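W.,

You were right to be curious about this one. When I first looked at the sequence I had no strong expectations either way, so I just let the prediction run and decided to look at it fresh. Below is the sequence, 89 residues in total, followed by the output.
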Amino acid sequence: MYYIYILLCDKAFFYVGITNDVDKRLRQHIKKKSPHTKRYNDIELVYKEEYKTRLEAETREKQLKGWSKAKKKALVERNINLLKELSKS
């Protein structure tokens, strides 16, 4: 299985990633072993989705990385109505 995940970094920035082991990858982020998140001190896993293939996960990761911060926040908060509204614009 593959996962896309969203981290909330320093309560301000959403980082989207892909992995086949969420717990291990989260530990790497927290231990500052990822160049993308090493500058952040507070890292929290706030969202994840599971996929059967890497290709499916990569496709979704690319989609989420293109989203605005507001759309990512609505997804994380599971605010479907706001997510639909933001998707219209």
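Here's what jumped out at me. The helical segments are 22-30, 54-65, 69-76, 80-88. And, maybe more interesting for your project: The chain has a mean pLDDT of 95.

Coffee later to discuss?

I.
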